[in-house]
Amino acid sequence: MTTVAVLGTGNMGAPIARNLLRAGFPVRVWNRTPAKAEPLVADGATYAPQPAAAVAGADVVITMLADGAAVEHVMAGVQLSPDTVWLQMSTIGVEWTGRLADLAARQGVAFVDAPVSGSSEPAEKGELVILASGARLVRARVEPIFDVLGRQTLWLDHVGDGSRLKLVLNNWLAVLVEGMAETLTLSETLGLDPHLFVGTIAGGPLASPYAVSKGNAMLDARFEPGFPLRHAAKDATLARDAAQDLGLALPLTAALLRRWQAAIALGHGDDDVASAITAS
């Protein structure tokens, strides 16, 4: 059976590891804060005190860490076996993906750029969309893992295309969330019950299930983190910076980032992205 090492057991890494355990995969886990990995040990995972111990002899290594710098710091300190496949599933942007692909090449291991679309709830249900790009020769080896973790795997042609598509998707998410926040505030300012707006668009061509869900969370001030605001802001920053590097301005993204940073400064960084409304 394929042994999988999961490095990073936060909001996304923990349900990924748990679903692999339920599917019968031997799983080793490491996290910078050991307490976050303890529940997985109770579920049958093997805890490794250091990343090197987690990856030693593993068939597949999954990195699900906060950003590119964190992934590089961890992976530069380990030596993978030549037949190991590295699934880089963190959202880190285009530049960091290239750097990590180069690191994998220097170690002589197969690298799959595979960020995911979906927050903690789809991760728990095994309903992520996996945006995978990597060598065709390893696809058959990792598809059983992706089948456990997601409802769809979209294979793209070139390493880095998964991360590019993830930036596009998260930029769209950011614009939807900010649009909902501002429109609810506009409704209330005009003297309307903001529930009226959400109820009017629900089920119609102006709505998306995600936007309606976040709108209802905003109305009820339900900010339990499915996708923490600080992570959403980090991802929107990656999209803005990647566009700037290519000479493209994203004025909506730049504007909402200023507002989201204000909400983070108010203490909402670890709350759900729906807490963006607190800056309105």
Structural commentary:
With 280 residues, the protein is of the alpha/beta class. It folds into two domains: 154 residues, 3-Layer(aba) Sandwich (Rossmann fold), CATH 3.40.50.720; 116 residues, N-(1-d-carboxylethyl)-l-norvaline Dehydrogenase, domain 2 (Orthogonal Bundle), CATH 1.10.1040.10. Helices cover 51% and strands 14% of the residues. It is built from twelve helices and nine strands. Strands 1, 2, 3, 4, 5, 6, 7, 8 and 9 form a nine-stranded mixed β-sheet that branches. The longest helix is centred in the middle third of the chain and has 29 residues. The radius of gyration is 19 Å and the shape is globular. The model has no long low-confidence stretch (mean pLDDT 97).
What does the secondary structure layout of this molecule look like, with pairings?
Blueprint: E1 4-7, H1 13-22, E2 27-30, H2 38-42, E3 46-47, H3 51-55, E4 60-63, H4 68-75, E5 85-88, H5 93-107, E6 110-113, E7 116-117, H6 120-125, E8 128-134, H7 139-149, E9 150-156, H8 161-189, H9 194-201, H10 209-220, H11 229-245, H12 251-268
Helix pairs in contact: 4-5, 8-9, 8-10, 8-11, 9-10, 11-12
